[in-house]
């Protein structure tokens, strides 16, 4: 069942089943002791094996929401079910299903890479599995650093260790909270290759990122959170189709001081100090209106020397949604 972004009459989460979402949130809210509300009755279903991107401006509630699911933050209200386990009633079985790569890099600086990986796996009650740890370290290009003290590693290598720690207990759900912030291009490329491999093996990936082009490339679905409210959840392709726009920009032979009255009813705006005319249209519509626009320009004696088209990116859609408070689309 697709996710919802509303909080009205939330049905109870269903038990784990083949077709059931792997993660279900119902009415999850968080109010801090100072009275500030960080989350407002979040309802969300995460599908098994998908890559879900949670987008939002700073302070929107992304990290609080992730912390609530991972057992770091105690919600003030609502229910969270992880692969059939109620987080409040069965915290350990639920937490064993989850791996978290947090924004901050924190680990024991005096331990070796191998020791911290082994400890992290044991922390969740899993028996030693050197072969699995080796696979993870090799995938992250850390195998040659397995005996190195973490304090001796570069920032990028420490970030790789954080990712490795999250994978030691073979989680069903992997949270990546701004995982590529401040890392080098090589690590970013390696990490996304690993994400794709994990998804192919059935791991569900939930990520937050400020690099919206990453979400556009990687995600199956997009969620947008703002001021603690989930304002939209939608399949990426559907979102791009519904809210994406195309723009035709005409470089004029002579600048215009204003849009002529004869064109006032069209979605036009002037740019570049009147040297360009920008026409916004629905690329999915039966008629774009471009032919009619060009004919009218000719009748008005407005010449142009060049034209090009541009399609909205996910970043354009995200910025527009946050400005409008999510009224541009609706939830899936």
UniProtKB/TrEMBL annotation:
The protein's name: ABC transporter domain-containing protein
InterPro entries to which the protein is assigned, alphabetical: AAA+_ATPase, ABC_transporter-like_ATP-bd, ABC_transporter-like_CS, ABC_transporter_ATP-binding, P-loop_NTPase
CDD domains on file: ABC_DR_subfamily_A
Keywords: ATP-binding, Nucleotide-binding, Transport
Statement: the UniProt record of this protein carries the keyword Nucleotide-binding: yes
Source species of the chain: Arenimonas composti TR7-09 = DSM 18010
Alphabetical list of Gene3D superfamilies matching this protein: P-loop containing nucleotide triphosphate hydrolases
Keyword Methyltransferase attributed: no
A single MF term (Gene Ontology): ATP hydrolysis activity
Top-level taxon in the UniProt lineage: Bacteria
Span of domain ABC transporter: 23-252
């Amino acid at each position: 069942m697709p996710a919802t972004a509303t909080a009205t009459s939330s049905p109870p989460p269903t038990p784990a089943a083949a077709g059931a979402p792997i993660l279900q949130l119902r009415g999850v809210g968080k109010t801090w002791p100072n009275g500030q509300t960080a989350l407002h009755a979040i309802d969300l279903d995460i599908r098994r094996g998908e890559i879900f991107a949670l987008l939002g401006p700073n302070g929107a509630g992304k990290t609080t929401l992730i912390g609530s699911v991972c057992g770091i933050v105690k919600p003030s209200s609502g229910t969270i079910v992880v692969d059939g386990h109620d987080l409040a009633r069965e915290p350990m079985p639920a937490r064993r299903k989850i791996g978290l790569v947090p924004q901050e890099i924190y680990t024991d600086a005096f331990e070796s890479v191998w020791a911290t990986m082994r400890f992290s796996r044991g922390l969740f009650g899993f028996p030693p599995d050197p072969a699995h740890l080796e696979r993870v370290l090799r995938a992250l290009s850390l195998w040659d650093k397995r005996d190195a003290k973490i304090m001796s590693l570069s920032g990028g290598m420490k970030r790789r260790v954080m990712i490795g720690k999250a994978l030691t207990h073979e989680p069903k759900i992997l949270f990546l909270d701004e995982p590529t912030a401040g890392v080098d291009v090589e690590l970013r490329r390696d990490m996304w290759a690993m994400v794709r491999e994990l998804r192919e093996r059935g791991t569900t990936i939930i990520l937050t990122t400020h690099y919206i082009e990453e979400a556009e490339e990687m995600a199956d679905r997009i969620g947008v959170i703002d001021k603690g409210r989930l304002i939209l959840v939608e399949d990426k392709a559907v979102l791009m189709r519904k809210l994406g726009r195309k723009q035709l920009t005409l470089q004029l032979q002579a600048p215009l001081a204003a849009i002529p009255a004869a064109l006032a009813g069209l979605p036009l705006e002037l740019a570049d100090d009147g040297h360009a005319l920008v026409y916004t249209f629905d690329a999915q519509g039966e008629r774009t209106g471009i032919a009619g626009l060009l004919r009218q320009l000719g009748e008005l004696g407005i010449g142009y020397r060049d034209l090009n088209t541009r399609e909205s990116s996910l970043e354009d859609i995200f910025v527009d949604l946050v400005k409008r408070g999510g009224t541009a689309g609706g939830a899936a």
